[in-house]
Records
---
Amino acid sequence: MSTVGTVALYVVFALAVYATGAAVLAGRRRDRRLMQSVSNALVAAFVAVVVAVAALEYAIVSHDFSIAVVADHTSRQLPLPYLITSLWASQPGSLLLWLTVLLGSSALVMYQNRHRNRELLPWVAAVMGGTAVFFSAMAAFVSPPFAKLPAAQIPANGFGLDPSLQNPYMAAHPPSLYLGYVTLTVPFAFGMAALITGRTDARWLLSVRRWTLISWTALGVGMLLGAHWAYVEIGWGGYWAWDPVESAALMPWLAATAFLHSVMVQEKKGMLKVWNMVLVSTAFALAIFGDFLTRSGVVNSVHSFVQSAIGPWLLGFLAAVIAFSVAMILWRLPLLRADHKLESVVSREATFLFNNLLLLALCFAICWGVVFPILSEAVRGIRSSVSTPYYNFFLVMFGIPLLLLTGIGPLIAWRRASTRSLARTFRWPITSAAAGTVLLWLAGLGSSWAGMTALSLCIFVTTTVLLEFARGTSARMALTGAPPPRALFDLIGRNRRRYGGYIVHLAVVLLVIGIVASGSYASVGERHLARGQSMVVDGYRLTNTGLFQTREQNSVTSHVRLAVSHDGKSMGTLDPGLRLFTDTQQVSNEVDIHTSLLTLTDLYTILQGIDTNGSGGVSVKVLVNPMIGMIWLAGGVFLLGALIALWPDPREVRMLARRYAGALAREA
């Protein structure tokens, strides 16, 4: 398997080099036959990398400990599902996954555009092929997944998988993030191809909008999966710690969010062309930067790999990407002039522009927080830490205006909005937000001004979105005579992009409510409990009723059984534990959580220690996290809205075809 996989990676590298060079020639000569050869080469490279993945998976499942990554990240006791997912637990294996997604995306782009974008496609293939050359070189020569151990060092059993990675989320969280990171290559490639060819109108955006939505959705879902993974697995009671690698995923998501909004302005008004090129380049560069943070070892993170030779190469590739994109934008700057000027700051165009500025400002603040400790250590020799309050400050300062714009943007008019129309449009949202603020204050939630402001704006945004759905549904009912459910279904189906976006806005509201409520109004208690003793946290009484053990294939878990009651009413038991992995001799927390389906509030229990004298005494930490379930509910609503926006819309296709019919005819 080692030989098969290694040869397959050499083949991938050779095919990527050929595809890149041939694509450049095909673009210069306008040679369609050569371009077909490029497409075939990228498809063949994808097949070859799949062979490499299959070879490594076979080596893992068959316990071939002569391969270093198999020995370092698996053991004979590891259950089969975690044997399979351990492929991306190692740096070389995860690099192989990255390359697989990249070449799969490249092959799919070639297939999708086989009858269109003939002028752009060679340069798209050149950019994607060049990216594949870099990553295949890393996989084949710098960080090879099939590196062999010397015969004298081959262990009889592997060293096992990190306990935190032995979780079902391992099957979804990393692949989702990698899908998001890697597919940002597609909009970047089309953007650079548009600059190279000078075809900088909105047509290139038509080919990348859904690819950007896929990247954006995958990153968003991946971050929420990772947050829930941290919440249930690491055992500290939280879900987001502003870890550098967590921030690395958030930054390209913010840039992609700005791009998805900015695209609409260019499509409708021919404006923000420079912005779109900058945003698409920034999103891709931040994806590479995130990969650098994860693989270089320059940051301390539970998510990062150990330091390796790949870090400097990634930094060099990032510098090349930035230099190339800046040079191309500056070269074509005269072609990126807006077709129209901004007529008023009180318009939808201005709202999207302010949205872009705030998203990039937040992105820069996060980036500085990640980079500052690295620069501090390089310059002064001392690593200065950037703590959570730094990030939370900028999240509040930029996040609250962004939340306000989320409610304003969909309702404000294009070009220019009059005072009368503004008063009519926002009368009910403002009234609802004001009334909600009073009710929140009376409910005793005024201890946090930021929390109160955010919750009030959530009411404002929710009202604007619901009014849009109500107005649209009413209009459909008047036009077709359909009952409300059918009219609502038809309304969404006739403008999936718009109403899918509104549903995503509702997901943002749910997310903010969950973050604010669980972050500002949580209760915490810690206590040593002898057998039979109780503790009370926010009205919940928990009683230590004794210890017991459970055994699995590669672990033994010691639990404490806590009898739980609230206001004198029994709620059953919770069994937090400490899990010892027999292959690695590592211990992890096994939390137990009770969720109220009515309030989405969690009673979160952690076993911190067990008395060694056999008395049955334990140390327990208990958290009451109000409405934290809103965060996980937001993930489902976010995915629903994104899928609606992604779903092909024949009406939109026909409209865009008419808009660009003349240009497409000239191209043909």
---
Amino acid sequence: MQITDFEQVDKELHNFLLDFVFSVRSLTEAQGCLLKITNNVLNVVFISGKIDNNPSVEIATKERTHINCLLQIYKPENKIETNLKFHLKSELEILRKLIETKLQLFFREKWQEKGFFFEYEEDEKDFKEICESLKNYINQFIDIELIGVSYLDPEEEEIYAVEKRHRDSLYYFSKSVFSYLKNKHSEWIQKEFADYYLIGRKVPRQFLSFLFKGEPHPIYFTAINFMLNELLMLFSSIKWLNAQKKALESVIKGFISSLEAKDVYTRGHSEGVAFYSLEIGKSLGLTSEELKKLEMASLLHDIGKVGIPDCILLKPESLSEMEYNIVKLHSVIGAEIINKISDLSEFTLPVKHHHERWDGKGYPDGIKGEDIPLFARIIAIADAFDAMLSERVYRPSKSKKDALRELEVCSGTQFDPYIVKKSIKRLSETDIFSPASLYFIPKSVEEARKGYYLRDTLTGAKNLEALVSDLKGKTEVYNFLFLDIKNFYFYNIVKGYKEGNNLLIKLYQNLCYYFTEEKVYRVGADEFLIASQEPFDREELKKIIKELEEKTGIKISFYLKSIDLRDIYVRNLINEFKLEDHYNSILMHYFEVLRNFFHKVVVYDTEFNVISMCFVSKNEAEEYPYTKKLKPLFYEEQIIGYAFVE
């Protein structure tokens, strides 16, 4: 399928892709571009001059999900610089995430426009009417024939919505999927049956499946899976509840669960904000009906984060200005989402404005004072209070006393001073909220998410962020081995960056062989660190380094330190190693100069480790610091080592 008219997908998505295309085109100086889908991959192709053969460079996202991106740049007369390729790859991954998010929001909007969601009651006729509307919509929009929908609860009757001519196919395939899902832990299944394609889902005992004539194009998988999940949530929450209010609460909790499935670090945050909002509301004398509405608005306040790309939302370090601006869109996205649902639309303004500030410096609209809706002012205080009391990956939690003091400090600037004054006593007497529900995302998924940030993309080694995370809170003595490739910059120039990358991968694999994967970290462009609670044997290390040099054909310098982790910040440790490497280079320069003027020369670092020596035995060099007078060696008025000369 070649995309020539994006209006069939979404005009906004079209404009978004074109913005990306032309911004990259300016970076690469390409003269033209082409957007197309081939082999299930969304391709962005840049063309410069006449195309005689293959493009000069291809950059692709690594992930194999519903939306893949491949960037092909035709520049036969010029090569693409390595740093630009790295930049383009990063931008391409963000593009892929944003495309997927945009499609989700787009189909969410189209789906909700049909108004099926909250009309379902209990009888089979309603189910079939909903499915018929859904079938007509999908067949019209996606250009693939949805022939039927089947639903089953183990304790209820089976329900099918299908034309008579396809009934047997739907019964047969659905039964096989129900049987498979019932006996497996998997929550999703996708199966091909000749020219039929079935997508099945379970949550947690109910089963729902869509049967298609043909196979959906990959670009629509996100939308189809989303609609199936939403429909199943509808059946599993509304069908067995007696009152619409309870059903609405379940839908809200489903929304919150979908958000928590995306962002593990905010697990229970929405419930915590609702808990503290109610306490604040009670201190203001709100009625029971107002408190109920405040609770629902509080639960929904962050729902717009489902539209924020994972690569930004889950980033464990400081956000760039661009990334922060994208995160700030969550309040607008959340407002747009719930405004489409008639039973939730009254919470649109609190959700949209819960990040406004009393002094007018908030977002998205910069309104101030009492122009900010009351519920939004309450949620803003509860949101900040819960965040301060919760531990995050990037900072520890505050004590309740410090959190309350922070609310008072920000009263009149960030927060409504009257609400803070009225609620501060009640909040001080309130227990700290603790989530009651267990987190439902498998540990393996969370480990994979962490790996996105804690693994070096080239070698697969754990990175500096992983080192900081692994050693966080450790109080014992650790032993560190710092390895640095000598003259790696020139190796890249002579051999080329591709060979340089292969060398780094090979070195990492060998380090894993000698020290195990869990202990090896890549902490710089050509620097690795081995962290161990067990002490290293210096002589054994020398043998290992020699073997590594023979296997890789490079020279490696290494340094050892035993450090009590209570006395140092891990990032500072890496800086110390790199500084020591720099000083050793200077000491080697001292050695080369001194050997031109003296017969015997030994150069030491500040801990009297031998850096280099000539016409002196090893035993003599080790004894000189205790028996001979050494000369200090300086760098910018700082002693960085000593020398013996004779």
---
Amino acid sequence: MDATDDPRARPRHESRPVGTPIVVVDDVRFAYQRRGEAPVIALDGVSLAVRAGERLAIIGHNGSGKSTLARLLNGLLLPTSGQVLVAGLDTRDAAARRRIRQTVGMVFQNPDNQLVAATVEEDVAFGPENLGLDAPEIRRRVDAALALLDLTDLAARPPHQLSGGQKQRVAIAGILAIEPGVLVLDEATALLDPFGRAEIRDAVRRVHAEGTAVVAATHHMEEAVEAERVLVMSEGRIVLDGSPREVFAEADRLRELRLDLPPMARLAERLSARRPGFAPVLLNVAEAADEVTKESEVRSQESGGIAGGASLGGASPAPTDLVGAGLAPPSPASPLARAQGEGGRGGEGSPIIEVRDLWYTYQVGTPFEAGALRGANFELHAGEVAAVVGHSGSGKSTLIQHLNGLIRPQRGLVRVNGLDLADRSLDLAAIRRQVGLVFQFPEQQLFEPTVGDDVAFGPRRIGCDRQEVRRRVREALDTVGLGFEAYKDRYTFGLSGGETRRVAIAGVLALEPRVLVLDEPTAGLDPRGRDDLLATLLDLRAQRGTAVAIVSHDMEQVAAIAERVWVMSHGELVLSGTPREVFGQADTIKQLGLGLPQVTELMHALRSRGFAAPTDVVTLEEAEEAVWTLWHS
């Protein structure tokens, strides 16, 4: 037997120079076949090469084919036609599949679905053990993977006791221990808090620096800018392929494809429209700070003033002749911002939900006892939009599951419309019709075979007649952007991740609740789907007076729609206020393992350069006007 056929031999990729193809996808088509239905084409003539040592990002709208392509790269799916070669081996060759999966390792969105052992160390060793390696080699690989991912101190810990970011690092370490040539990440940071996301991004940088090619399918545009190359997919095809700067220069095309620009690229787009000569594409905060500073110096020289120390916060008068000054009028607010402004502010009168001194402990009296809530206080008023943020394990999900009685208070008070949820005689079914809850993993809420039946489940249970059920299902599906006729007969198991999430939300909306509570509602949605959903929530507030509470790790999203932000840490609500008030406390937010909107980070970066920048800027529109004021101070 040739040594290269031995699964215990070193992977072939180690001898491949950086830049040579390690995975080749040649004219691949892939169709999902559903019983009694026409095939659904997921990939339609895709060709690409992944080169050794390359860092590649794949972006695209929900259903564009990203995840399907990712699963084809290591033979989890096989092409309907065309060919996928990994280190020269055809993925359709069953005898080669073990070697293929040793060469191309894959990490999925939910780390809990990938961890199989009792300790971190054992989990990382699982792959090398299954390759039949001897004990010294397994030890070497496990130690190297743990060290690379900063997990050595956690080697003896049970994976279930780790944070989301730590679990995902363990999953990546387990793949790295088989020493693959390519690491494929399918939305691997979608469910993580900002600190966990930063952990994974740092880990990926280290893995890539070690020579491993990285392919990441993602909806986070700020992650895509860190790649060397970006592929944009739509309707099963690659429609753009280039460097991040080249791809994000195609702003109009990306928006046609239901995508968006990274925050700093959006700011650059707006500022370059008002100030000719300003860089039209910026990819991160550092670039934006450099460009704003440079432009401020240019303006200072033109006017004979001094740029350094100029105030961004002052109310300087605008030039009378904007065109003559080389500026266009202010850009209009985004549809999301307009929807927020038109909706009005809730919060008047008595709270519809009231939480006082709430404590909760899991597995009381066992060795695994863990406190989740420690004296939490929270309230939500009719028509209010509130966001609950915090690091993984801070108690966010435990808190919101108290809001409709899924968890009963152990100590403290939870009231809904004045009714005490600790009262055992209370009709919880009635409470849950008023307070609808959408879970973090929406697939856990879908159990009927078709979309229409799943959304209809709630209305049928509360006794709605056939006509009323149909009305509610139609309205709920239309509200979340899934046409009634197109989706009512679709099988739930055949939906994409984004479609699954929207169906779960529709099932709750069909009950027409007064309060909608959502745990990470936009995870897995493409940028357009995210903005459409958030605008829908604001419309519900404006038209029906629906109160909305969102658990989110996306600080841009929180800044865009929330009127009030509750910050949790270790089971306590430690900060509350408007987004401006909360994100204005940057040092505290970062100490809590959270992030800031990038426009807020930009203001802090400018302030560190000597400008009197306002640090309470939280939206793109505010950042644009702040910079505009800087140039005319």
---
Amino acid sequence: MRTIAALSIAFLLCLQISAGTRAQTQTQKESGAITGTVKRDGKAASGITVIATPSISDASKAVEQMFNPSSSIKAATDSEGVYRLEGLAPGKYSVAPSAAPLISSAGNASIEVTVGDSTVEGIDFSLSLGGVITGRITDSEGRPVIGERISIKSLDEKTGPTDSAAAAAMMAMMGDRMYTTDDRGIYRIFGLKPGRYTVSSGKDSDIMNAVLSQHPKRVQTFYPGVTDESKATTVQVTPGSEAAGVDIQFSNTDKGFFVAGRVVDAEKGTPVPNAMVAYAKERTSLESGTIDTGASAASSGMPGGFTTTNDKGEYRFAAVAPGNYKLEATSIGALSDSVGGQFYADPLSFEVKSSNLDKLDIKVHSGASITGVVAIESTDPQDSLERFGQILLMATVIDSEKSFSSANCIVGIDGSFRLGGLKPGKATLQPMAVSARRPGLLRIERNGVEVKEFEIHPNEEVTGIRVIISSATCVIRGHVTIQGGALQPGAMIRATARANSRSDLNSADLVGIFQAEVSGNGSFVIDNLTPGSYEIEVFTVAPGTQTARTLSSKQSVTVTAERPAEVELILDLSKTADK
């Protein structure tokens, strides 16, 4: 459910941004700068564009940045390979050279830099020519397939789970438009790191292409022309070389099958229009022979396909290859007019063998609901909910079996809200807003009593909830001193801030824990915080994993809106992580 719920949130955030003002005026003094050098094969590289992009710390910022790319600062290197990015507001930036055929020799495609009111020096890049994969895509009769998307997958790089499903959806929505065939059916993908890849076509690799594509649906086909990924031929890429002749021909017999059905109210049997429906491939464990439909499957990335139901509650997917799948449905937040606005669905597993499937009905339930108000608490008498613009409130519920469900809604101008379609379990709430001002959660009250989370029962109508927010303008700036050794090549350092008022939480996915990557110079910034006390620590993350290897000493700090809090931490690499 996490992937399809993230799609729903992303869709709502996109609508909020496109309907409102997309550019924000910065009133903060912009006096910071970043400088460094860019070299190619050990020599100064002139004319290389270097871009500093504000780091993304939440899903709403990701969408906002997608629609407002002017927030990035650019500079070109001079004859000595030196660049200087100026006029930067204090904060975190991702700095990277924009040179598509070139890759970083050190593996650091971008560097996160924390900027204050002075110049950050020594942010250097060493580049070399990357590899190329090129080939031709044809149909079953050998004719070129024009404008077809190509997907490549590295078999060497391990990617851990993203910090949030919504952020993953945002990144997917900003997919690279380079991977497309020309009028001859030829594609050429350049600037690739050395390693092993699989190449495929016939599947939209990002949400926007899936929505806008006018091409007929095809079964995902891997080089050299197989639909089973395990039988795909590996393509080896070496530095500065070209892997040519990586051709894919779609088979006339592998058009796939359609899968269709309805989304219906389980109690009334009535159709549910405007529901979002997605399917994803279920993973089979080779060791146990069982089907994995749990967290690992949910976190595997984009769904195989998604659509919305028509006014009769009907959905249809075309070109579905043989295999085992799982269907899910969710409402699109406050835009859904079904089952009281929102619902949760019974996931439906199915297998495609050698024929079309129809009448696959997904049953949904109205579930529990939460009603209440969002209120602002501030020392500024002029502060009000209106200053945040439109606020989106999200509920996350985890039941006794660790199953996940969520709901979201747009908060009314009077602060009222209703969240529906929830499974029973323990609920937490989180406000978001797409505006210059960020709402931070201070506390949740139920019937006047503060709660960190609260239990909801089957079909219960939970009332008396107050979500107290304030402007999330507080900042923690820190510096990490490394001792006891050197970092493992490719390892990163991450900093976390845990709100002491929510010390019972133990997952960075939940409310009350914030994090940031530490720059190469040892500095970090954790922003969008509400006033209060936080516990800060840093740890290393080994390359290709999300596993903490070494922990620092912890430090508590109190933040206020008046000025950033400063912390100094020691990271002793000679010590092992706490078990």
